[in-house]
Design goal:
By secondary structure, the protein is mostly helical. It has 19 helices and no strands. The chain has helices at residues 2-53, 60-74, 77-112, 120-133, 136-139, 142-151, 155-180, 183-208, 223-251, 253-289, 296-329, 339-354, 356-364, 368-393, 395-420, 427-447, 449-457, 462-487, 489-507.
Length: 508
């Protein structure tokens, strides 16, 4: 039953997100065409700033999920309702704090930020409306419901609603951008869709969990975890979202538009991988809650094999095809970056996917305090290196900083996992998987340079390019999995687990 839920969580997260990615490709092209390079640059920067504004959440959702693992494992409805009520109370307080921050940031942007002529008022209105639209789930029940469903390994219900609304929202953004050509129209669409999302998720969860309600006792003990989670959230945000803001400051909105064109595809691939990671977090969380310690390390090694497979499949496809794809997607010469820059982009994707099994294990075991120091070191390193390297090397400079930070992150996360969770294994035993994968990736990047050039010069049709990328992805996935199964028992265990899962699904 647990394996079935993991499968459902991944399926309902990944498949709709693939559709969102396809629509997003169209959306990005429409934004560049109808609101211009600068307008798109401001819109992408607004989204990055919003990520920082919502730091006030301080990882509270993760704390709620972690606190619910045990009550769900023990089927303790009273504790579940107490945590549900307590978390709703805290989310409302967080919502008020974030609203205050939104007002201050809007004022600060108005007074101190230099906008290109004609964009200031439009960008500020867009920022304010989009930011406040995300608060609906804080004052409502969306955030709390997401935490409850995640802990119960039934996040697929939330995912179906969230991804369905997101897909419809992106389609409507395309329509209003073509029709009105303003940032404000995009913001209004997002606001309306967030209201609809809140209504639908209430209906769905009330039907699924009729016994879920607030009681007199409100458990807010999970707040204690947020002092550690806050630093972790800051660290992850700097590690993953600082580049566009630095590029805006150093090179302006057009450079941000070029960077985010590549980064959109990279983020899309990374988000698909993260949905597998989230499912593994909830799986590990239930293993820890039920004290099935003997299953932890074998399960971890299987997940490592899974993410090595995902990392090679997605990264090699991205590296070979992204310049050819951009050439037929955007069709602007200044958007065509060098192969070296593409390799650096790909390296950040590859390393980011590789450390997901470590993140899953750490979060599932509640090692927030220990993890915050490590992630803050990596975030600080990324920020310092990016600031130093952005002037002489531009986009490549910030990518080098991110790549080095991700590499350090893998090493120190592996050390934490060995020290606190997998105590019977030494650090070298865990790092060998990652080290060998990184060495092979570096060699492949050198070998594939002629093939990438051939793909670029032969990319003249959008549909044909998509089909060729699909073929490359399938071929790389099949070859990588075959090699892994040949050399690793853990990969063979993963293969048998997947086959058994498919057989059970077919029988049912």
């Amino acid at each position: 039953m647990r394996t079935k839920k993991i499968f459902l969580n991944m399926l309902c997260d990944i498949l709709p997100y693939l559709l969102i990615g396809i629509v997003g490709i169209i959306k990005m092209d429409v934004l560049i065409t109808y609101i211009g390079d600068a307008g798109n640059g401001y819109y992408q920067t607004i989204n990055q700033i919003i990520s920082y504004v919502f730091l006030a959440q301080a990882g509270f959702s993760d704390a709620v999920i972690y606190s619910l693992y045990k009550p769900f494992a023990e089927k303790n409805k009273d504790d579940i309702n107490a945590i549900y009520g307590g978390s709703r109370k805290v989310f409302k307080i967080i919502g008020l704090i974030i609203f205050g921050i939104i007002c201050l940031v809007t004022l600060g942007l108005h007074l101190f930020y230099h906008f290109e002529e004609g964009y200031k008022i439009s960008a500020l209105i867009c920022f304010f409306i989009i930011s406040t639209s995300y608060l609906i789930s804080y004052f409502g029940r969306g955030q709390t419901y997401m935490s409850v469903l995640s802990a119960a390994q039934e996040k697929y219900l939330y995912s179906l609603v969230f991804n369905g609304i997101k897909l419809l929202c992106d389609i409507l953004i395309v329509v209003v951008t073509v029709q009105f050509r303003t940032l404000e129209s995009i913001a209004i669409v997002i606001l309306i869709m967030k209201i609809i999302e809140e209504v639908i998720i209430r209906i769905v969860v009330k039907k699924k969990y009729p016994d879920l309600h607030e009681i007199a006792r409100k458990d807010t003990s999970m707040i204690k975890m947020t002092k550690d989670l806050a630093w972790t959230q800051v660290g992850y945000l700097v590690l993953n979202n600082i580049d566009a803001i630095l590029i805006m400051g150093a090179s302006g909105p057009v450079a941000v538009s070029i960077y985010t064109t590549y980064n959109y595809i990279l983020r899309f691939l990374n988000e698909v991988s993260s949905r597998v990671e989230l499912a593994s977090v909830y799986s590990f969380g239930n293993v820890f809650a039920k004290k099935e310690d003997k299953r932890i390390y074998p399960l971890f090694k299987e997940y490592v094999m899974l993410f090595i497979l995902i990392a090679f499949s997605m990264s090699i496809t991205f590296m070979i095809g992204i310049r050819g794809f951009v050439s037929v997607w955007v069709s602007k010469e200044n958007y065509l970056l060098s192969y070296l820059t593409v390799v650096l982009f790909t390296s950040t994707l590859f390393l980011n996917i590789l450390y997901y099994p470590l993140v899953a294990l750490i979060n599932a075991d509640g090692l927030f305090k220990e993890n915050k120091k490590h992630i803050f070191i990596c975030a600080g390193l990324n920020l310092i290196l990016s600031i130093i390297l952005i002037k002489p090397y531009g986009i490549s400079g910030v990518l080098i900083g991110t790549m080095i930070s991700f590499l350090v992150n893998i090493i120190i996360k592996s050390s934490l996992v060995v020290k606190k969770i997998i105590k019977k294994e030494n650090l070298i035993g865990v790092l060998k998987y990652f080290a060998l994968s990184i060495i092979i990736f570096a060699l492949i990047a050198v070998i594939l340079s002629p093939l990438e050039s051939l793909f670029l010069t032969s990319s003249t049709s959008f549909i044909v390019t998509i089909l060729k990328l699909g073929f490359i992805f399938i071929a790389v996935t099949g070859l990588t999995f075959a090699v892994l199964c040949l050399i690793s028992k853990d990969a063979r265990n993963l293969y048998h687990r997947l086959i058994n899962l498919v057989k059970r699904k077919l029988k049912s």
